[in-house]
Amino acid sequence: VLAKLDFHVGDLYMLAGACSFAVYTLLMRKPPSGAKPFDALAVMFGIGLIFLAPLYVWETANTPPVRYTPSILAVFLYCGLGASIFCYWLWAKAISFIGPARAAIVYYSMPLFCGVEAIVFLGEKVLWVHYISGAMILGGLLVATKPARK
């Protein structure tokens, strides 16, 4: 199965994104003196804007305009405020409190949270496999965060 994997350019984009987020996380461990987490976030958003602006111009010139419905605006608010500003601010706080290695453990809980959101927002059915998977994720998190014996 592994020999038949077919990689695409999007896979490289995702790999580059994961690597850049790892570098960001490591750099957030010791920000420059006097810098606040929001400062680093503003710089990161500015750099992102520089890279995305040409693509935005191209897209608006080559595709029909977006119809801004209340649901589209709600998505923009969720992604812009919730998933971007608020979550990155919390991530920086977590790194400053417990360090990048321990903060990274949160990624193992993502499938659990995504599953709960799919149940709540999309009406997905809960099957026995979800209970077992959730229990395994929570068990792994408990083992990973258990204090070491002295």
Strand and helix map with partners:
Layout: H1 9-29, H2 37-62, H3 70-98, H4 100-103, H5 110-122, H6 128-145
Describe the structure.
This protein has helices at 9-29, 37-62, 70-98, 100-103, 110-122, 128-145. The model has no long low-confidence stretch (mean pLDDT 85). It is built from 6 helices and no strands. The protein is mostly helical.
Number of strands: 0
Strand residue percentage: under 5%
What is the H/E string? HHHHHH
- Count of discrete alpha- or pi-helical segments spanning 4 or more residues: 6
Q: Based on CA inertia axes, which overall geometry fits? A: globular
Task: Give the gist of this structure.
This protein is an all-alpha fold and 150 residues long.
Q: What descriptors fit this protein?
A:
150 residues, mainly alpha
